[in-house]
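Reply to dn_fold:

You asked what the input looked like. This is it:
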Amino acid sequence: MELRQLHYFVTVAQMEHITHASQHHRIAQSAMSRQIHLLEQELGVQLFTTRGRNVQITHAGRFFYERIAPLLQDIDRACIDAQQFEHPEKGEVRIGFPHSLGIYVLPTLLASYRKTHQNVKFVLQQGTYPQLIDSVLCRRIDLAFISPFPPAHDGVHGDWLMSEPLHAILPHNHPFAQHKEGIRLDQLQDESFVMFSERYSLRAIVLEACAQAGFVPHIGFEGEETDTIRGLVAAGLGVSMLPAMALVETGPIMPAAVPITHPEVVRTVGLIQRKQETLPRVAEAFRLFLIEQFQTIHPIMPQ
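and this is what came back:
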């Protein structure tokens, strides 16, 4: 069984047409048909049946395809990674991030980096805390911004980047909206809260802060995105808490942001990678750039 035969098989399965598949691989139709026939002989099963000018994958072929296609993607990815491993100025960086960092911080960092590294390509993946860790472990991404930063983990390690306070966000007509000197969290105990769903780490931070303040919040609405949380609060449907970097004005509907004086509510942000693995040089160069930028975070953070 040859690797090229498997590639031919996957293409035929996807296109359901021998001629189109042969044109895609720039080989003769007869050569394509022969390679598929040889593969069927080696496996001892029929992979396709003829349907007019097209072909139709059999049940055995579908079973084989569902296992072979992801493996070929991994092989292709490994070949690209190997070719680019020693080149810090070209190649691809695959990085994950939570939504709150995608509003302002990550675009600013990428724009700054691309000024001097124009040949570097970025593949971005947004996700929740468990999704990002899983994507790093499964090698779908090389690096991930994550919050909270895990102090210890069997499969990943990384660099603490920053700690950031959370602010209370309120409708502009709320009695506390103009208290720029700050409020105690227990002053909001009778309010309806707009909360992230249980998949998001910010929810746990808010619930823990409310517990420290001596109350369990009444949850009136739940959302999946920072923009949704801000919009619901700005529309007067409740109050919430968000980190500073999620409060950059990006639209016409923005809530009032007020500091919380007690208890202290912060989240940590870190950058993780797989343990005991060397990053491709292009990803390592970007990682070092990120660490340097966060050491002087104020110029890239909203004021």
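The first strand starts at residue 48 and ends at 51.
Hope that clears it up.
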